[in-house]
Amino acid sequence: MTMQEQLRALVERHLANLVVELARVSELLTPNSDTGALPLAQVVAAQEITHQLKGTAGSMGFSEIGATASALDENLKTLKKMPDPISAAQLQPALELLGSLRRIAESTTPAMSALYNADLSKLAQ
Amino acid sequence: MTDKLQRLTYVEDEPDIRSITEFALKELGGYELDVCASGPEAIDRTPDFNPDLIILDVMMPGMDGIETYKRLRAIPQLAETPIVFMTAKAMKHETERYRALGAADVIPKPFDPITLPDRVREIWQQVRKTAVAS
């Protein structure tokens, strides 16, 4: 396998993992169906995943996903400082950002990564 | 301290970022690399590997990067080994905290894996320059 092929395989695997991780964030940010409120512990868990996604997606060459994950991360950090539980109204901006992030991720292909067609020929030692 | 940077220990819990960094440092940079998935793994293996430089994630479950840093530093053989934090927690006050601990430098996430080997080489050169000057 060439270096370019290795790099592309890493990008492809990351994008598949990303969709799974975002589904986990979505589950964590699903409020109680009766009250519409969300336990703070779930916001904390969702923020930890989102924070990691921000760094990983950006480093994998998906700058738009990284930037949107960063916006969600900041929003969740603010929610973490609020009293437990989080109300439906407080949660709404985070859910909108998450919706945008999932739509972007689902419409992204590996070839859209800045790394996918990177010229490695001059870099290899 | 050796003249040329050859051996790196890299500590990171997240599999995707670990893979791309490993690719960048090993395949593109040509470094000899020991990759650890947790702080305890690094504390167990790093004295034997005896790297020239250590790259350490900050947010890790269980033992975080700060605690791992302190424990690595407490190992006499690694007391002077340059340690670089690679982290998404890289606000000004956070990087100042890492430097106050004694970190050689901070690489913020996200980073460009294509230029990462050069960035690490620059840090190494800076560390060597400082060591020679003192």
Range of helix content of chain A: 55-70%
Separate helix tally of chain B? 5
Main beta-sheet strand count, sense and barrel state of chain A: none
What is Rg of chain A? 17 Å
* Beginning-to-end CA distance, first to last residue of chain B: 13 Å
pLDDT below 50 for ≥5 consecutive residues: which ranges of chain B?
Answer: none
Q: Report helical residue fraction of chain B.
A: 40-55%
Q: Mean pLDDT score of chain B, rounded?
A: 95
> How many helical elements of chain A?
4
The first-to-last residue Cα distance of chain A is 16 Å
**Over all CA atoms, what is the radius of gyration of chain B?**
13 Å
Structural class of chain B: alpha/beta
If interface size is counted as residues with C-beta under 8 Å from the partner's C-beta, which chains form the largest one? A-B, 24 and 22 residues
| Number of structural units classed as domains of chain A | 1
Low-confidence stretches of chain A: none
Which overall shape of chain A is indicated by the principal axes computed on the Cα atoms? elongated
Secondary structure: number of strands of chain B: 5
